[in-house]
Amino acid sequence: MAARKTSVKPNVSPQELTQFYRDMLLIRRFEEKAGQLYGMGLIGGFCHLYIGQEAVVVGLEAAAEEGDKRITSYRDHGHMLACGMDPNGVMAELTGREGGYSKGKGGSMHMFSREKHFYGGHGIVGAQVPLGAGLAFSDKYRGNDRVTFTYFGDGAANQGQVYETFNMAALWELPVIFVIENNQYAMGTAMKRSTSTPDIYHRGAAFGIPGEMVDGMDVLAVRDAGQKAVKHCRSGKGPYILEVKTYRYRGHSMSDPAKYRTREEVSKMREERDAIDHVRELLVQGGHASEEDLKAIDKEIKAVVSASAEFARESPEPALDELWTDIYAEVR
Ligand SMILES: Cc1ncc(C[n+]2csc(CCOP(=O)(O)OP(=O)(O)O)c2C)c(N)n1
Ligand SMILES: [Mg+2]
Fold first, then answer.
1. N or C: which end of the chain has fewer CB within 10 A?
2. 330: pLDDT confidence band, cut at 50, 70 and 90?
3. Which of 53, 110, 125 to mutate to test the pocket of ligand 1 (most atoms within 8 A of CB)?
């Protein structure tokens, strides 16, 4: 990945920059805590951490407006926190407790919030892509100007259903932003072993969908690209593709020994390209925050995350008769 080009005077207010720092740090600390709880046996099933990729969702959320929708894969905790879902409810769901977003019955990959327009959480690779187009269709049908952010990985981008979706989304000019979170691996398979071309942002060309590549370790670059894509979709011009180059620091899931890449590769990325360090530098160098200010934010975020773990541990397991609820939708 090329070195970051940070402009001397980035186009961002100190308040917005500080908010980015907070939002990304919340995701990172939350995920670290989830990793700990998993290690302690308090989280069962699958658990895919988002550490390293924080700038993608935080940058794009900064481009979203109230009522816009989002849908993603199983690597979803960051997306939930970034759209304003309650860390307590997310952590309690991870630990399978009653206070969780799916009453403890869904776990890491199956959480939803209609209030925050978050439509999951999908464990089947690529399955959320046509669903995302469907969400965008519903907005077009209703005649509002909402946009749907449909996130998927570089691995998912090789699936057939993605291209069927591109075709229909372009044909019907649906207001959907296809966000390819290219973290360069699909489980243990490096992109160069599975993908015929190094860049995937132009894969919509055959359908007339514009696309661009974005530095996903630079939250400002992500926000700017997101704003451009949102403008395109909201003005009725149809779908847009953003290939956001990012990197996951942890294994594919908690059970991945990560033997397919070197430790040096990971530490180089952490040391040279970390998105949170980048914003921290901008804040300090721009004179917007002192080391003390940043420490205070750190402390505050840690307290929120600890409280979510506490809430999760204290929340009871779902009652047995919950086995029979939430199976069929109520017909209204
Ligand atoms: C249809 C389907 N095939 C295979 C799997 C197993 N699987 C889970 S994640 C994954 C890799 C996906 O990689 P990518 O799309 O790059 O997303 P990332 O995990 O890197 O975020 C695979 C093959 C699955 N869950 N669903
Ligand atoms: Mg991937």
1. C
2. confident
3. 125
Domain assignment present for residue 152? The answer is yes
Q: Is residue 10 part of a domain?
A: no
Tell me, what CATH number does 29's domain have?
A: 3.40.50.970
Number of domains in the chain: 1
- Of residues 187 and 6, more confidently modeled: 187
What pLDDT is recorded for position 5? 54
Q: Which residue type does 187 have?
A: M
Please tell me if the CB atom of residue 124 comes closer than 6 angstroms to any atom of ligand 1: yes
pLDDT tens-place string over residues 134-156:
999 999 999 999 999 999 999 99
Per-residue pLDDT tens over the stretch 85-96: 999 999 999 999
- Sign of the torsion angle spanned by Cα atoms 289, 295, 299, 304: positive
Cα 23 to ligand 1 centre (Å): 26
Whether residue 324 lies inside any domain: the answer is: no
Angle of CA points 186, 192, 195, to nearest 5°: 75
Q: Which pLDDT score, from 0 to 100, does residue 212 have?
A: 98
Q: Is 154 helix (H, G, I), strand (E, B) or coil?
A: coil
Which phi and psi angles does 190 have, rounded to 5°? Answer: -70, 150
Which residue is closest in CA terms to ligand 1's atom 3? 125
Q: Between the CA of residue 42 and those of 27, 94, 312, 330, what are the distances in Å?
A: 19, 8, 10, 33
Residue 75 Cβ contacting ligand 1 at under 6 Å: yes
Q: Ligand 2: distance of its center to the CA of 136 in Å? A: 24
Q: What's the whole-model pTM score?
A: 0.96
Point out the ligand 1 atom lying closest to the alpha carbon of residue 154: 16
Rounded Cα distance, 193 and 208, in Å: 27
